[in-house]
Amino acid sequence: MRTPGRPASPRNPRPPQANPGIGGQDVAPLFLVVEGMDGAGKSTQIERLAAWLTEAGAEPVVTREPGATPIGAKIRDILLDPSHAEMDPRTEALLYAADRAQHAAKVIGPALAAGRVVISDRYVDSSLLWATRDLLPDLVILLDVSPELARGRAGTTDRIEQEAAAFHAQVSEAYRELARRYPDRFAMVDAEAAPEVVEREIRRRVEERFVARPAGSAR
Ligand SMILES: Nc1ncnc2c1ncn2[C@@H]1O[C@H](COP(=O)(O)OP(=O)(O)OP(=O)(O)O)[C@@H](O)[C@H]1O
Ligand SMILES: [Mg+2]
Q: Which atom number of ligand 1 is nearest to the Cα of residue 122?
């Protein structure tokens, strides 16, 4: 299925290249994003989804935000440094935007142009999601967990994870609101279940949205 409204752009050339995907269907180029709170299970599920796609003949490019490029890695260090507690929210948003610009230009765009499936561990901070319209994901898989469960799983202490519980609840609610507002782009998956159950649901949502396209349809 082709998602509506993707603007044509020189940075988003999307050649209709054949890729022997699942069940012989053409699944690439395809831009998937997995979002969720810290500890929601993104890394766990991306690894499983990538293995499944690889087995099916569509080995994906797995990437992440922030920090997927050499410049992005430095931006990530600035964002996560616990000594940067005074960081202004706009500074933070612009650092994410700078990381994303580099990521889109150097990693995601070229991979899609080469006819690959791309899976990004996060792509945009929820507040900026609809601000940049030149390279949007086909499907955002939102791993939905309660903030309490996510904190329990994550168990780390970088700057963002040290923020108050109230902030975590707000982030969680903001993700859900985005998924409600943009049902065509978001697949909200209950990620509190066992990893195998979450994995099955992600496959179902990916299959449902993209693999069931008529054979030969270009994205
Ligand atoms: N469905 C699940 N049920 C129980 N435990 C899980 C589940 N999924 C992941 N975990 C465990 O929770 C922890 C966090 O998972 P993971 O690293 O995949 O989350 P993440 O979303 O990538 O976190 P971060 O944002 O911090 O990178 C890991 O120890 C993982 O084994
Ligand atoms: Mg992770």
A: 25
CATH number of domain containing 85: 3.40.50.300
The answer to the question of residue 82 being in a domain is yes
Residue 168 confidence class, pLDDT cut points 50, 70, 90? confident
Would you state the pLDDT for residue 52? 94
Residue 176: domain span: 30-210
Task: Dig out the tokens for 19 from the structure.
Answer: 């890729």
How many distinct structural domains can be found in the chain?
A: 1
Does the pTM exceed 0.70?
Answer: yes
Which residues, 6+ apart, have CB-to-CB distance to 187 below 8 Å?
139, 140, 141, 142, 179, 202, 205, 206, 209
Please name the residues in contact with 177: beta carbons below 8 A apart, sequence gap of 6 or more.
none
Residue 26 CA, ligand 1 centroid: distance in Å: 31
- The ligand 1 site (C-beta within 6 Å) comprises 36, 38-44, 153-154, 191, 193-195, 198
Give residue 189 CA to ligand 1 midpoint distance, Å: 14
> Is residue 75 one of the residues assigned to a domain?
yes
